[in-house]
Design brief:
- With 406 residues, the protein is α/β, with parallel strands linked by helices.
- Helices cover 44% and strands 14% of the residues.
- A hairpin with a 5-residue loop joins strand 9 and strand 10.
- The longest helix has 24 residues.
- It starts with a helix and ends with a strand.
């Protein structure tokens, strides 16, 4: 009997310890629905701790199942009860009710503007998995803080003051001096290059987004992603103060050694997510294989413009429907008014005289009802394929995009 009691107490101690460990696994990630594994939470918490140690910002994330009331109020209360520092940011992804909320605390209200909040949310939301999305969110926040905070990190927490951090080299944007088409691999004729460049310049002015083309004979030891990112950043590509745009890099070669990569930045991150980039690449592949380079890059421009064109406003669509219905009503009313041989009847007697209609029986059987409904896809970590992920380039800026060898 004593052995059973001891065993039971031992089991309770283990369970209690496990609960404490699980609940204390992270001070930055709050996963109410259990969508993240313990290992993923630990890795995300490590990223958050690194940001907090370097910049003094408490960066948190909450996956809420169903918040009653305002998601923003929920985020504010959660941050104030759980955050270690005054300066910080908390995103709450509410799976019911309001979609999400971003709460800023302390100096974050001056550093993170509404436009930057949109970029940070897009970095998270463009990924199909919670882990990938939150990782992209942390990368985007760190990029913002690298640009906003002085090059010397903030004072380390108590007990770590003797640890020396490497100084952060701040990226300094430059003005673009190169054209939007740089054909270093010499794949286009002069006429093709000039025509394509003129078209891309026109699109940049019309949509305030730069679309660029780069061909290279060699990647100089870099990956295609790194080469495209660095070329974009250090040569001043992108429209406006946030350098909004997209660049496609192509390196020709033998089958299996060709490389293509699209990099995006600024507003281009949301305008051209990974799915869009993959669609653009898919549409270019055949022409690139057949060395129809002008056709391939004009396809890139065509699809870039297609995804930049504004969608039809709901108000305009509603107005068109109302005008159409009003015009149809007037026309039908006019036609019906000319038909004087028909008079409205108050009962069915006129239609049943002289046995013109005989009802011998009637049956009304209710067979059933079938409802087709397509639920909104749920984001969990069971499938990490696809989606859109942002990453940090050597300049410290956030980029999206996609690429492949073929």
């Amino acid at each position: 009997m004593k052995k059973r009691i001891i065993a039971l107490l031992f089991a309770l101690i283990i369970c209690f310890s496990a609960v404490i460990s699980a609940s204390a696994a992270s001070s930055h990630i709050f996963d109410e629905g259990g969508y993240l594994s313990y290992e993923e939470i630990a890795e995300l918490d490590s990223m958050a701790n690194r940001i907090e140690n370097l910049y003094g910002y408490c960066v948190m994330f909450c996956i809420a199942e169903n918040v009653d009331g305002s998601t923003y109020d929920y985020s504010e209360a959660l941050y104030n009860s759980e955050a270690d520092g005054v300066n910080g940011i908390l995103i709450t992804d509410n799976r019911g009710g309001e979609k999400y909320s971003i709460y800023l605390s302390g100096d974050a209200e001056n550093v993170i503007t509404e436009q930057i909040m949109d970029i940070i949310w897009d970095a998270y939301n463009s990924n199909e998995t919670y882990f990938g999305g939150i990782s992209s969110y942390y990368a985007a926040v760190e990029t913002v803080l690298e640009s906003a905070v002085s090059s010397s990190p903030v004072t380390s927490p108590v007990g770590e003051s003797d640890r020396q951090e490497e100084p952060v080299t701040e990226f300094v944007p430059v003005e673009r001096t190169l054209p939007l088409v740089v054909d270093n691999a010499d794949l286009l004729t002069t006429e093709e290059e000039n025509a394509l460049c003129a078209r891309l310049e026109m699109l940049a002015q019309e949509y305030q987004m730069e679309l660029a083309v780069l061909t290279v004979p060699d990647l100089e030891g870099k990956t295609a992603e790194a080469y495209a990112d660095d070329f974009y950043d250090y040569n001043g590509y992108g429209y406006g103060e946030n350098d909004d745009g997209m660049l496609v890099l192509y390196k020709p070669g033998e089958a299996g050694n060709r490389e293509i990569h699209i990099t995006t930045h600024g507003r281009g991150l949301s305008a051209f997510n990974d799915v869009v980039c993959d669609n653009i690449i898919d549409s270019m592949i055949d022409d690139l294989k057949n060395e129809n380079y002008a056709s391939a890059f004009n396809t890139y421009a065509d699809l870039g413009e297609k995804y930049l064109k504004p969608h039809v406003s709901f108000i305009w669509l509603l107005m068109c429907i109302v005008i159409g219905m009003l015009a149809g009503f007037i026309i039908i009313k006019s036609i019906a008014g000319k038909n004087k041989s028909v008079r409205m009847q108050t009962n069915a007697t006129a239609y049943t005289r002289a046995g013109s209609m005989v009802v011998t029986g009637s049956v009304d059987n209710f067979i059933g009802r079938r409802v087709y409904s397509t639920p909104k896809p749920k984001r969990d970590d069971s499938d990490s394929s696809g989606g859109s992920q942002s990453h940090t380039s050597s300049s410290g800026r956030s980029h999206g995009g996609s690429g492949r060898s073929f």
